[in-house]
Structures
1.
Amino acid sequence: MAADALCRLTLRAAADGLRAGQFTSVDLTQALLDRIQALDARVGAYLTVTADRALAQAQAADQRRAAGQDGPLLGLPLAIKDVLTTQGVPTTCASRMLEGFVPPYDATAVARLNAAGAVMLGKTNMDEFAMGSSNEHSAVKPVRNPWNLAKAPGGSSGGSAAAVAADECLAALGSDTGGSVRQPAALCGCVGLKPTYGRISRYGLIAFASSLDQIGVLTKDVPDAALLLHVLAGRDPRDSTSANVPVPDYPAGLDRGVDGLRVGVAPQYFGAGLHPDVERCVRQAIDALQTAGAVQRPVSLPHTKYALPVYYVIAPSEASANLARYNGVKYGRSDPQATDVDEMMSRVRAQGFGSEVKRRIMLGTYALSSGYYDAYYLKAQQVRTLIKNDFETAFQDVDIIAAPTAPAPAFDLGAKLDDPVAMYRSDVMTLPASLAGLPCLSIPCGFVDDLPVGLQLIAPPFAERRLLQAARAYERARGTLAAPVRQVDVP
Ligand code: GLN
């Protein structure tokens, strides 16, 4: 099989090829490493490429296979967002603060991939500490959207989404606090799944906002997302917030269809600010689900309009607490010239954090400070409960909710850099489900101005199976989208 064709495979197709002996994991891994070498200077998806290690893992996978062993991901090359710790491999969160940090342990999600036989190609670029919606807040370099290199890939998992979209890996891990898997998936045209809060262990996921953070997957199609979720999900004694809820066989029964499935459509997701052509694509997608047997039902989520302000109080508050640990002592950046602790801390933090991270720390510290806590953090938590209750009420009448993932297709690099609120607004569609802790995903549903558009599906807690079945039904009804030429393929 030609190298480019290998790079385009889904996880399942690659696994079939490996099992049938059509190619080896070393062939596949080498093809992807060559493609990264050829393209990534233009895309910027990777912060670290672990070529030698990847080839060694691939070789080991091939040997295991030759010895008659198999595994759900045996020999399949993936990319890992640089927010997840990887033993012996630099992990920086795209921040100068963690420059030089080499973790002594693997995140549980990474350990599970390893145990399933996966090959790690490298660590992907992101917004610093996962704060951002365009990947431009990376302290290292921006990521470019493979469809149009002048556009942002979304964020904060922009590197993972771009790597999948540019066929620089078969699939990738990301993290989603307020939309960081779904929004870049929408803007880059891949599938992005954020499971229920607690579904995947966060041990080794560098913390941003602990009541929201969740690991997610970026893949080329829905069955690949189901396959990865099945490997990753489950209770982990090392993360007390990981849920002790049985893990169903997500890949099984994926093609069950949507006969009779009640799909909720909320007017709050279709209001002002939504690009009319994005709305058209999303409504067509919902109609396609209906043609496949689902029924559309109107629902109302009246507190959705508060999701943006609520999120931008809660997430920075939790971030300000989580980021207090970067004091120049334990990991990453230090300052040997500092003469006392105060000087050390202020110098390291002044030099180590970028401006968006500093903005969040200041916002959060303010919102948590004495006298303001009740007015901001507590109030935001109360409104968060109302947002959650809206979903609970809606899910009494419907099985799933459909909405756009992002209000518009990918925007120009630089367009929102000087306007934080405009940047924050690109998460307006993904934040409500995050605040409610719900499983949700984005799936490509069309192109506008030659750029991908995402349909977002949201399900009740731990209904990932239903979510994936509905997404798969749509994917089959949709068929292969008529796609323009990716700019990354034009020499
Ligand atoms: N873009 C949002 C933010 O900047 C969400 C980020 C995320 O999900 N990690 O906070």
2.
Amino acid sequence: MSEFNLIEKYFTHAAPQADLGVGDDAALISVSTGHQLAISTDMLVAGTHFFSDCDPYKLGWKSLAVNVSDMAAMGANPKWATLAIALPNVNEPWLAAFSSGFFACAAAFNVDLIGGDTTRGPLTISVQIMGEVPTGQAIQRCGANVGDEVWVSGQLGDAALALSYLQGKQMLSEEVFAICAKALHSPQPRVGLGLALRGLATSAIDISDGLLADLGHILDRSNVGASVQLSNIPHSAHFGVELAGSMLQREKQAIPYNKNILNMLLAGGDDYELCFTAPAEKHAEIMRLSQKIALPLSCIGLITGGTTLVVHGLADEILDFKEAGFDHFS
Ligand code: ADP
Ligand code: MG
């Protein structure tokens, strides 16, 4: 199969939001009047970002979803994408499934694939996404103010839990794994939330590298600190049981927290939820928004002066990550 036929068969769909899509030397798009173009690129490399034998449909979904998530974090409306893909060989069933997953995500978030590049090489997928945001209204990382509340959407840790299971580090029931695997393989970018946060949030980021690392980026760029309550970090029920268990043990026998679980909640990546800050007087409005878009939004702490990120444990003690061996947190 020639490269041209492959592109034609698997990567050419209608692109109603573009002036010119796949097939020419360049695509053409027009940005709506009064808007800025938001652009982001994310690369997924086999063996680093995914297992090379993973389900190609899910990989297709995720390749675009992680990019759509960056638009959500900016408060931008995703519209166009390009796909550069290196393939070790032409495997048509694989390509068909990958392309189906990619276009399923594209349809779900109204994104047109308008171009790309296809080459032979170690399996690598690089997507560039473009979206629109009314001029001056993008939500950046640098806007957090002292006194703002820190919020997180959805629940954290499930993707890391599934990964931990796949790596043989964690036992899980089939039922729990099924839930967590969905978070890991089929993330749902929070575009509706991102759009609704324009004019409401002072800063935002999507959680791809773990809560502490990504909130840390907001703090760095905004030149502020934060105080976060572990007990307020939203997580699925199975984490609740384990955390509560760790706390009981801790009181009686001074056994430290289950490091694995803390790690998944605070440093587990791949959740693609949004972490954002907003003035405290917007609290009720954000709770109403949560109802309206049927997505849990949890206030997990406050922006503080200084530049440190402090996490309070279940007995309100300050967690010392260095002592606990979490070097990369400090
Ligand atoms: P050129 O040689 O001019 O760069 P190519 O032969 O690489 O063009 O690509 C032909 C057309 O197919 C271009 O419009 C390009 O954007 C598109 N294309 C190539 N690979 C992909 C892909 N993986 N997904 C979507 N479009 C692609
Ligand atoms: Mg050309």
